[in-house]
Amino acid sequence: MGESLMLGDRLRVARKTRGLSAAQLAQRVAVSASQIQKLESGVRRATPSLILALARALRFGPEVLTGQPYYGDPEAEDGVHAVIPELRRTLLCFDTPDELEIRPRALPVLASEVDQIAALRRDARYVPMGPLLPPVITELTHVALGTRGVEQQQAFWHLARAYRAVNSLAHKMGHHDLGNTALERVRWAADRSGDPLMQVTAGFLVAGSMLRQGATETARRKLKGLRGELERLQPERSYTDDALAVDGALLLKLAVVDSRENNPEGAEEFLREAEQVASMADNRDSLAYEMSFGPTNIRIHAVHALIDTGDSEQALARLAEWGQGGAPWVPPASTVGERSSHHHIDVASARLVEGDRGGAFAELKQARKIAPSHTRFHPSVRETLGSLLRMDTHPSTELSVFGAWAGVA
After folding, report:
1. C-alpha neighbours within 13 Å on the C-beta side of residue 279
2. Element holding 190 (H helix, E strand)
3. Is 86 helix (H, G, I), strand (E, B) or coil?
4. Pairwise CA distance, residues 25 & 149, whole Å
5. Which run of H or of E encompasses 377?
6. Under CATH, what is the fold of the domain 7-66?
7. Count of other CB atoms within 10 angstroms of residue 269
8. Does residue 50 contact residue 29 with C-beta atoms inside 8 Å?
């Protein structure tokens, strides 16, 4: 294991920093003192909702417990954080962009580059995506601020998509302050795009950030308000396919809100409603507004909700039920990499909880195959790997090498 700190180690340091005993912290988050001790020793793993509750009780941000952003050997190899300073500067100067030596490229060319960036984002290919962002944002901003009418609105529309990619990169790499700044820029651009669905999408992203910071009730109000806005935009629920995809994404996020609050019945209800919305769109997986909404993502969220509420056994049973030929269900190969890898990371933690160490490692290997950067820098991956290495007196060479690759061993 080397000197790599795990969540339990950071929890112990944070608790002592606040001068709390295990029993006092346990009382604040309504768990037993023995559960806190098991978390600190690494015997027990924390769900996302428990991590948020612990961070709130300790008056720290959740990143203090997860340890993000991660540096060390993985960062030295990937260099994925290297673009962060330039992105900070670009976002700070959002309405007074750097002067260009030549005129910005034509809007269709810039739009095509944003399409490429969006595809890289969906597949969690952050290393090639990062360097593309500052220059295209700067050029798009010049077009947006220097034109009028439809061209200006289109420039702002694509600018909102580029800022969304910054938010995703920053969030996944643990730079949450930059991620929140990027969200403000998404809203700024969306408000000028002339597209109400892009404005709803911006609100959806903000609600996701609220949820990650533990503001579940605020996130719920935000999401329900956005659904009301959609109803006003689409009279008599005669939704376009794009609006159905956005509405479905809002429902899936509401399911996550309920699972974070340990309300599996509420989560299940939102998932059923999402299935109804998907059926209205002929049960096709859609990438409208980059929401990845459809039957596949509904299943991914259903499993996530069960794992989030601590029902790993039922989550794995559901996968077995959906599977074919004795193999558990997995997202189709056409599923975007960020969603698919996230699913395998979730299932790895569930298999570990249920005592299937080999299955847990197999899920992590599949996540890495699909989206290496996403897997390498994901907090849950590090916790699962740390547990696997800790449990195994003589870990295999393959597991040890994987741990070193992720910065754990």
Report:
1. 6
2. helix 176-190
3. helix
4. 57
5. none
6. 434 Repressor (Amino-terminal Domain) (1.10.260)
7. 15
8. yes
Cβ(143)–Cβ(93) below 8 Å: no
Residues 6+ apart with CB under 8 A from 24: none
Average pLDDT of each block of 10 consecutive residues along the chain (409 residues)? 65 90 90 87 77 86 82 79 94 92 94 98 95 97 96 98 97 93 98 98 97 92 97 84 96 96 94 97 94 96 94 96 94 96 96 95 98 93 90 91 89
CATH number belonging to domain 201-328:
1.25.40
Do the Cβ atoms of 157 and 195 come closer than 8 Å?
A: yes
Nearest to 250 by CA among 270, 233, 272, 268: 270
- The position carrying tokens 């159905």 is 244
Is residue 353 within 8 Å of 384, Cβ to Cβ? no
Please report the sign of the dihedral spanned by the C-alpha atoms of residue 118, residue 120, residue 122, residue 126.
negative
CA distance 155 to 192: 9
Which residue is it, tokens 């961070």?
Answer: 55
Structure tokens at 90: 């670009």
All structural domains of the chain with their residue ranges: 7-66, 80-194, 201-328, 342-409
pLDDT for the residue numbered 4:
56
In angstroms, how far is CA 281 from the centroid of its own chain? 25
Strands, DSSP E only, in 71-163?
A: none
Residue 75 identity (one-letter amino acid) = E
Q: How many CA atoms lie within 13 A of 292 on its CB side?
A: 22
Distance CA 45, CA 192 (A): 44
What is the reported pLDDT for 5?
67
Q: Give the position of tokens 């060319």.
A: 109
Q: What is the residue type of 83?
A: V
Q: What is the pLDDT of residue 146?
A: 95
| Tokens 């593309």 -> residue | 132
User: How large is the greatest C-alpha to C-alpha distance in the chain, in angstroms?
Assistant: 66
- Measuring CA to CA, how many Å separate 55 from each of 30, 129, 304? 13, 31, 21
Place of tokens 């220097």: 146
**Residue 3 DSSP one-character state:** T
